[in-house]
Amino acid sequence: MRDYFLRRFLLIPPTLLGISFVVFLVTRAAPGGPIEQAMMQMQQMSEEGNSGGQTGTGLLDEEQRKDLERYYGLDKPVVESYFIWLGLRSRELSHKEVEFEAGESEGSVRVRLVEGEAKKKRMRLERDPADNNVVFTNMEEFTGNWTWRKLDAKPDEEEGSLRVEVFREEYSGLVQGDLGRSFRYGKPVGQVIWERLPVSTYFGFMTMLIVYAVCLPLGFYKAINHNSWFDNTTSVLIFMGYAIPGYVLGFLLILFCAVNNEWFPTTGFTSIGFDELSTGDKIKDVLHHSVLPLCAYLVGGFAFVTMLMKNHLMDNLSADYMRTALSKGVAYRDAVRRHALRNSMIPIATNLGHQVMLFVTGSFLIEKIFDINGFGLLGFNAIIDRDFPVVMGVLMLSAFLMLLGNVISDFLMAMVDPRVRFK
Predict the structure, then answer these.
(1) Among candidates 240, 359, 263, 249, which has minimal Cα distance to 295?
(2) 3-state secondary structure at position 398
């Protein structure tokens, strides 16, 4: 069994690479990339400025467009861009042009010492007129791997002149733990995701805890008391809740419990001034804001887990080994606990591993309704805004948890059922 799980873990990286490559191709082929989004935003800012009496073109100039294309890897073939995103090929940063006129041997340019910061320093270069080779003369003052390339001559360029492009090469990608920078938020993707993970993890944990704590005993008693008034009444209520989509229930709860009666807050995860509250008041505030969203999250999972528990327990109660145990004098309660209940937990254990994704995915519809800035809403907004670095980051985390959940399901199945032995 050890070798089986070792192979399963070793299969996770190549599976993630395959998934990420397919999605990377889709993001490159999708219309309306980050360049178009930037142009649209600048156009809107220009129109707003013109309405206020200001002027502006609202378009990216050629240098800005080139910088964005380089940053997002749109100036290179798809496969090469993918390897840059992985961090297996170097990324080009801080591009600057230096022009040497005919007979000129020295040049300089101001570059940023650190990408994204305003502090700059002048870099000096020397040109060898014999072979048009360029060398850096004060590289000890700069960090990183700086290099240069020769640019094509302009049509009106003077003979004997030389144009070069100076840039810094850096390996920064998935392998190095760098998922890029969000186009919408202007922050590293890892930071954007980390800021929203606690909210989605909280709702995912609470949802799973409440569902299994309530539905497993409920399914057990429904199976033991099959066709009783308790079983029939709870079945009607459960399937009524299952028929209502979570986001629809969220709207109804906001209207009835928040707007009409003001029992709970309408939106948000915390109140204004949350940081100034004491620890106890913070816990109460979060729980108070969590009641309505949790109801919307829980309504769909109740029916599935309850009926899964009930149906499998009923099948095991009517199995031959139960009749054999009872005929040998085993008490009915002990037979149910030792045999039927344990076998009924096998599908529950299988499903439990798949619930790992609940800790991060969330529901963008519910988060949108309740204005909860969670992981699901982040992924949805990233797709709408064509924020491809965030899309890839969300995908990698979700895919990893899905694959990890499958391994956990197999492990839990082997723990519950001693007959299962993976080889």
Answers:
(1) 249
(2) helix
Q: Where in the chain is the domain with CATH 1.10.3720.10?
A: 189-416
- pTM reported for the whole predicted model: 0.77
Show contacts of 68-72: CB within 8 Å, 24+ apart: 68/34, 68/35, 68/38, 69/35, 70/95, 71/181, 72/33, 72/34, 72/35, 72/183, 72/388, 72/389
Q: What superfamily in CATH does domain 189-416 come from?
A: MetI-like (1.10.3720.10)
What does the DSSP 8-state code read for residue 275? Answer: G
Mean of pLDDT values over 315-341: 82
Cα–Cα distance measured from residue 253 to residue 245, given in angstroms and rounded to the nearest whole number? 12
- 141, 125, 143: which is closest to 133 by C-alpha? 125
CB contact set of 256 (below 8 Å; sequence gap of 6+) = none
Q: At 190, give phi and psi (nearest 5°).
A: -60, -40
Q: Which string of DSSP letters, residue by residue, matches 305-338?
A: HHHHHHHHHHHHHTSHHHHHHHHTT--HHHHIII
Q: And the tokens for 235?
A: 């079945």
Are the C-beta atoms of residues 196 and 382 closer than 8 Å to each other?
no
What is residue 180's DSSP assignment? -
pLDDT band at residue 278 using 50, 70 and 90 as cut-offs: confident
CB atoms within 10 A of CB 96: 16
Question: Tokens 């390339």 identify what position?
Answer: 149
